[in-house]
Design a protein that fits this description.
The chain is α/β, with parallel strands linked by helices and 273 residues long. The protein folds into 2 domains: 190 residues, Vaccinia Virus protein VP39 (Rossmann fold, 3-Layer(aba) Sandwich); 64 residues. 33% of the residues lie in helices and 34% in strands. The protein has a 7-stranded mixed beta sheet with strand order 3-2-1-4-5-11-10, with helices on both faces. The protein has a 4-stranded antiparallel beta sheet with strand order 6-7-8-9, with no helix packed on it. It starts with 16 loop residues before the first helix and ends with a strand. The relative contact order is 0.17.
Length: 273
């Protein structure tokens, strides 16, 4: 397919909000990511964090359990409801650590208008940033990020490596298979490419527990989401133009420097001037 991106991108949701925490192996992911965020937060004196595109709020809650003041923002009401359910389950740990947690409706370009004050760090992880509406939307979002960060505050972005996807015209990401009490769920992501965007088809296959014995067919559901293409030659100049400096890119949360040809994702850390 060819042609420019003409419609605003939509939030990426590979499953209903109630199933999102089934799709993500949070224990594995947070165990892997925690040391990286702890080191970044300590190095930059972070006490107050804004998590943009927080989804079901699991990283947001992890930071609150560290005793930090954390606000999660997401435009999806169902995701915020899931985040609130997760907050209720973890509130005693947050209180014991002396942290603060809140979840608020909001999205790119509208953060400063929420009147939350300034933050020491802003995170935008889980491949949320490509949901901006084109390069103009990226520009607006980054200016908004800078507006809610104190001078010297940091932004941490985590997204799929678009340099690798676009260069190789990669068509799929390995499936995720989850066994639940209700049955088996398989999450697939298939990509197409248009000018300025990557089109993701999210396909969910479901089969009830025990259905394999009878040969029952899989139930299929799918939806398409357009992601603004954000390779390094697009994202980095816009970060600098928004007033960010000391930009570092990592390929993994162990601090390995980014390899545009090989890494599946990229973690970007930058300082607000």
């Amino acid at each position: 397919m060819t042609g420019p991106l003409s419609e605003p991108v939509q939030p990426e949701r590979v499953a209903p909000a109630s199933d999102y925490d089934t799709f993500v192996d949070w224990n594995k992911r947070l165990t892997r990511e925690a040391p990286f965020f702890s080191a970044q937060f300590e190095a930059h004196g972070v006490r107050r964090v804004l998590d943009v595109g927080c989804g079901s709020g699991m990283p947001t809650l992890m930071w609150a359990k560290w005793g930090l003041d954390v606000v999660g923002v997401d435009p999806d009401a169902s995701m915020l409801a899931q985040a609130e359910a997760n907050r209720a389950a973890a509130q005693s740990e947050v209180d014991a650590a002396g942290g603060f947690i809140a979840f608020i409706a909001g999205g790119f370009g509208g953060l400063a208008a929420l009147g939350l004050g300034t933050f020491d760090a802003l995170t935008c992880t889980g491949n949320a940033l490509p949901h901006v509406a084109g390069v103009d939307g990226l520009r607006e979002a980054l200016a908004d990020f800078a507006a809610v960060l104190r001078p010297g505050g940091i932004v941490v972005l985590h997204l799929l490596n678009h340099d690798r996807l676009i260069a190789g015209k990669i068509r799929s990401i390995p499936p995720v298979v989850r066994e639940t009490a209700e049955g088996t769920r398989v999450f697939l992501r298939v990509m197409d490419y248009v000018e300025g965007a990557i089109l993701f088809d999210f396909v969910t296959m479901q089969r009830p527990a025990g259905a394999w014995e009878s040969g029952a067919p899989w139930e299929l559901a799918s939806r398409r989401s357009a992601h603004t293409a954000l390779p390094g030659n697009v994202l980095l100049p816009e970060l600098r133009a928004a007033g960010f400096s000391e930009i570092a890119r990592y390929g993994k949360h162990d601090g390995t420097m980014f390899d545009a040809e090989k890494d599946e994702s990229v973690i970007v850390v930058a300082v607000r001037g």
